[in-house]
Write a structure and sequence with these properties.
The chain is 54% helix and 7% strand. Strand 1 and strand 2 form a beta hairpin. The protein is mostly helical. A two-stranded antiparallel sheet has the order 1-2. The chain has a domain of 58 residues.
Length: 85
């Protein structure tokens, strides 16, 4: 019998993930630490969002209009015209 030649492209020789030398329990500890960090970061972002929302409401109450670039007074016609363009 004649052997068939197989064309292999770089990166397609093995579909199985490469094994690492890191023990599984150490990897899981790292994953849990990253999850805690992510949860903390998400919590901080929620707090920042709440503060920004509260600040925007307060600014609206005292006569400031909230724009993408910051705050402006409602009677500043030059800035208002530029913002509307």
């Amino acid at each position: 019998m004649k052997s068939q030649s197989v064309i292999r492209f770089p990166g397609t020789a093995s579909r199985r993930p490469r094994r690492t030398s890191t023990p599984p329990n150490e990897t899981m500890q790292e994953v849990e630490a990253l999850r805690r960090d992510l949860r903390d970061a998400q919590f901080i972002l929620v707090l920042i969002g709440r503060k920004l929302t509260r600040a925007a409401k307060r600014a609206d109450e005292i006569g400031y209009r909230v724009l993408d670039a910051g705050l402006q007074t409602s009677n500043d016609s030059t800035t208002a015209r530029k913002a509307n363009q």
